[in-house]
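Hi W.,

Here's what went into the run:
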Amino acid sequence: MIMEIARYRPLATISSSVTSDDGLISGKRDRDKQLWSDCIVSVASVMDASRLTGNTPNSVATSQAIKFLKRSRQLGMRPPVMIDQEPAGGIIVTFEEEDTSDEWTFYNSGEVEFTKYIDNKVVLLQSIGGAKNDCPNVSKYSSNWIEPTGSALFSSRPVARRQTECHVEPDLVTSW
Amino acid sequence: MVNSPTKVYRQLISGGNPLWFDSSKTPPVSHAAFLPSSEDTDGLSLIDMSLRSEVWAAHRVESPKTQRRVAVLDVSEIERIATDFKLTHKLICDRDELDKLFGEPIAHCLATYINRSDYDSKNEAKIKIKSWARTVASKIAKENISDVQPLPTVYHCYRPPHFKFSSHHKALMEIAIRAIRLKMLSFRAIKGLSRPYRNG
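Here's what came out:
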């Protein structure tokens, strides 16, 4: 399955190939690298975060989310735009395009859920297994990926990559 | 007692909400703040802005040391969004721990259509609630999110500055005051304290 996934060309590679400015590409790559590392660190920090109250994500949810993020990074996906805690316990990872967004929820129970939104409206909600050590099949659901034929699995279309800045707020507790 | 609030507060946990975000997004409020938690089995907790001050609206008796932000929501707007997603909207008064301490009028309400029971058991309800939460979050302006509120003390008024008791509540308070006075008088009479000064 992983080999199959690896054959899919990420959208980023295509958009990179049409960009002539090599400096810009390497700049983007560096920034993405940093973003990936920051968001993985932020999830890892939840494991011992005493600042979180209520239904704190447990080690099952956090380790699954970390595995998922690492695999997504390896596959060349774009970094997420938001990571949050699920109110009943778990981690929510959100990826965004222009008007669509993909959301992965890793529940404390080990269940993983994929939700696709278009203009804030849910267009797809799917539970993806519940095995604690399973990492969901990223490419099957994400609009960040296109099939070898060029058609997206879901409603995604080849859109220009958004110039977003993600970062971990150093003093999130006190100043958001 | 039924109130019909026009604006309500929703509590947001100051730290960890969101854990990490894209700073280009304004405001950085995640829809997870509007999803029901495991405690919200019968509805999403909201606080009538006209009946509780911001500092107290961010406070919970159950977790007194946790500081929170609050987001201001327009009731007509959230109900319109609920209707758009075919949610049967209903906002009911529901006494929370602070209401029990401070009495009527009750400030805590529940948006019964956003509840965890339906969210966990019915896929259709989950889709509607998720869509509602995301739309509500996307419509919140930055100025409608407060700073992290301090923990309330005796110096923080429970009722907002513009709060005025209605004639109904004034009458209730008058009765309560009279009852207290009567009780004090009877207590003094029993204890022989009705005459504070002895005749010379």
